[in-house]
Design a protein that fits this description.
The chain is mainly beta. The protein has a single domain, classed as 6 Propeller (Neuraminidase), CATH 2.120.10.30. The N terminus is likely disordered.
């Protein structure tokens, strides 16, 4: 097996995005994907590992090609990786996350959905490992502006050209397409919140724009060829607490904005995650303090409404640097992961599936008012196409029933439950969308176990959601803890870990849905659980429900993506409950379809010894040929972000925050680092390097015989 990501790529690779693969436009990608689907995994499963290396199956090569700090414009110095680097608006950001591939022609001058040798990777940069970003680590509050400038600069998005030359993939530093979007970049507010009173700030008195995008996690690819990015843990970057201003509830007159802020996790006492607001009085830092300090009634003299400009799906045209970036507010405001389009059918509305990644939050669907016109897949003004589909429509939250069915409940001001909701008085539909969590509370949507990525099977149209875990789920809940229900049916104590025992839905599961009649605008669906994460050694069939073996077991599924070439389902983990046995990993699956399993009864014990049973619906158990571990990452990493060339012969995968356990790190002593990846894999460092600081990075994975990944 190949370790450390060093190898030789020999595949002849095609690149590009295909509108036809998403059900619109020209080409034959749909037929190709359906007829050439991989139905049996041919590679040997990778063993679990705690090594500081990337492990892929024998016969595969994994090469790091784009890492934190890499310069993406001509004339920018090479990355030194010692904490002295600057100009991160001209370099790769940190914490590489979701990404999509967009093809270029052979000359690298224009969009080519079937580009054969080169393309663009558009990706999210979710957060930063500040210990390694600065020369001597992070300074506590009050924060130096020089440090905050770096941290802000590594967040956001990047677009970078990648090219296959001499059998190997590499990024192109001086490509005219390269781009960085940071929390300073101006972004338009589009849809119902545009111009609304809830979005007025000192920066945007007309409520038409905001600055930047934050905590970008999952992604999506539109049928017209643009990039979607989900803003996830954005609320933690803002605060209402600072010296001399500790009574923001009172300053706001204890109005309904207080209920909104608390529902999204911003209290008047907790400091922000990064302390950016403490770096000075300049507006670029002051906006992260969202307490009411101005005298105006509309918020145009302070940043009390700044938070309402974050928490959306962001759309960007990766090919066009001059096109405005837009936040699509009609899709609701919450901790977005990915955005996946369902069945794309001419003359029918489009459906976009999304999850809110927090404990006990909800699954959502947006349905466009406009029916799909396949000609829109070929429009030159792609952002204008986005205006027509993503700014007007209906937002729904999911309610799961015990009979394996469920309903999409519209989040509308016309819904009597929303109009009469006592904890928060909604003013209009824009208010409903800004406060989608409160609206979903009002209609009784089902509280899920951290809905993260969603992906849609290219052939069946079934929607798959990773439910990462939930430590608030209990057999006998107390206070804010959550009871078991058929769609979230497990709570147990993991007693086998060497480090700590954890209670709840420790290992997570993957749920799948199918719309009634296969219609994107359906208001009801069926559901079952595709897979339950678990440790292979657990014999309790109410915990290891899917009967996972040593070559398949996993914990905390997070990233989820389907190949449109092979129909393979790629499952990526972000785990803290099984890391004494293995680093985070990626598995390949060959799913069946919803309903291929059976109704199953799970049994748990209450404190008094009495049994509690929960009936749920479980998909067909995997076998060796339909679920295998494909990759294990380096120490303390998260596997996240996955995309491919259309021929299925190159897979791009992100390794996020290797070596992120910095509690005992001494920057003067590299032996205290828990990871040195990708330097120890030979990336911009001597082979075998054991002193380099770890970096998030993108890998290009190919099969040594030039075949398709997974075959």
């Amino acid at each position: 097996m190949l370790r450390g990501g060093v190898g030789t790529a020999t595949a002849a690779v095609l690149g590009g995005w295909s509108a036809a693969a998403l059900g619109g436009g020209r080409g034959h990608a749909v037929a190709t994907a359906a007829s050439s689907a991989i139905t049996s995994l041919a590679f040997a499963a990778v063993a679990k590992s705690t090594a500081d290396a990337v492990t892929v199956p024998a016969g595969y090569s994994a090469i790091p090609i784009y890492a934190l700090g890499d310069p993406i414009f001509a004339g920018v110095d090479a990355f030194k990786n010692d904490g002295t680097d600057l100009d991160f608006d001209k370099r790769a950001g940190d914490h590489h996350d979701g990404m999509e591939y967009f093809g270029l022609n052979a000359a690298g001058t224009a969009r080519d959905p079937n580009g054969s040798m080169r393309g663009l990777l558009a990706m999210n940069h979710e957060a930063s490992t500040n210990k390694f970003l600065h020369g001597s680590g992070r300074t506590p509050n009050l924060r130096p502006a020089s440090e905050v400038d770096k941290e802000i600069g590594v967040h956001g998005l990047s677009v970078v050209e990648v090219r296959r030359t001499g059998g190997t993939w590499a990024y192109v530093q001086d490509s005219v397409f390269n781009r960085r979007v940071t929390p300073h970049t101006e972004v338009e507010l589009s849809g119902p919140i545009r111009g609304h009173a809830l979005a007025k700030t000192r920066y945007a008195v007309d409520a038409t724009k905001t600055r930047g995008t934050l905590s970008n996690c999952g992604t999506g690819l539109t049928p017209w060829g643009t990039y979607l990015s989900g803003e996830e843990n954005w609320a933690g970057y803002f605060t209402r607490a600072r010296a001399g201003h500790t009574a923001d509830d009172a300053a706001r007159g204890n109005d309904k904005s207080v209920a909104s802020l608390k529902r999204y996790g911003v209290t008047q006492t907790a400091p922000s995650r990064s302390g950016w607001e403490t770096a000075g009085i300049d507006d670029e830092y002051a906006r992260f303090f969202i307490g009411k300090t101005g005298a105006s009634t509309d918020g145009t003299d302070d940043y009390r409404h700044e938070l309402n400009g974050f928490g959306y799906i962001v759309e960007m045209d990766a090919y066009n640097k001059s096109a405005a970036i837009k936040k699509r507010t009609a899709l609701g405001r919450f901790a977005h992961e990915s955005a996946a389009f369902g069945n794309v059918t001419a003359g029918k509305p489009l459906a976009v599936y999304m999850g809110d990644d927090a404990l006990g939050e909800y699954i959502y669907k947006f349905v466009s008012a406009k029916p799909w016109n396949p000609a829109d897949a070929e429009r030159v003004n792609r952002m204008a196409v986005g205006d027509s589909y993503l700014d007007t429509g209906k937002l729904y939250a999911a309610r799961f029933d015990a009979d394996g069915k469920g309903d999409w409940v519209e989040l509308s001001i016309a819904n009597a439950l929303i109009a009469a909701y006592a904890p928060y008085t909604f003013a209009d539909q824009a208010d409903v969308l800004v406060n989608a969590r409160l609206a979903a509370d009002a209609v009784g949507a089902t509280k899920m176990d951290r809905p993260e990525w969603c992906a849609v099977h290219p052939r069946t149209g079934d929607m798959y959601y990773t439910l990462t875990n939930n430590m608030k789920r209990r057999v006998e809940p107390i206070g804010s803890q959550l009871a078991l229900d058929p769609a979230n049916p497990r709570a147990y104590t993991d007693e086998t870990l060497a480090k700590v025992s954890t209670t709840g839905n420790v290992n997570g599961h993957i749920i799948r849905l199918a719309e009634k009649g296969g219609r994107s605008a359906a208001t009801s669906f069926s559901w079952d659980v595709y897979l339950f994460g678990a440790e292979a050694g657990v014999t309790d069939t109410s915990i290891n429900v899917s009967a996972l073996t040593d070559e398949q077991d996993f914990s905390s599924p997070d990233g989820l993506w389907f190949s449109r070439n092979t129909n393979l389902c790629w499952i990526q983990t972000d785990d803290g409950s099984y890391t004494d046995v293995s680093n985070s990993m990626m598995l390949a699956g060959v799913p069946g379809r919803l309903g291929d399993g059976s109704k199953t009864t799970l049994s748990f014990r209450k404190a008094d010894g009495a049994a509690l049973t929960v009936k749920t619906f479980v998909g067909r158990k995997p076998v060796a040929d339909t679920l295998k571990r494909f990759l294990v990452g380096p120490v303390d990493c998260e596997l996240t972000g996955c995309t491919e060339t259309p021929d299925g012969k190159t897979l791009f995968v992100n390794i996020q925050h290797p070596g992120s356990n910095v509690s005992s790190v001494d920057l003067s002593d590299p032996s205290t680092f828990t990871s040195h990846w990708p330097g120890n894999a030979g990336y911009q460092a001597a082979s075998g390097n054991t002193t380099s600081r770890p970096r998030s990075a993108t890998m290009a994975i190919t099969k040594d015989d030039g075949g398709r990944i997974g075959s």
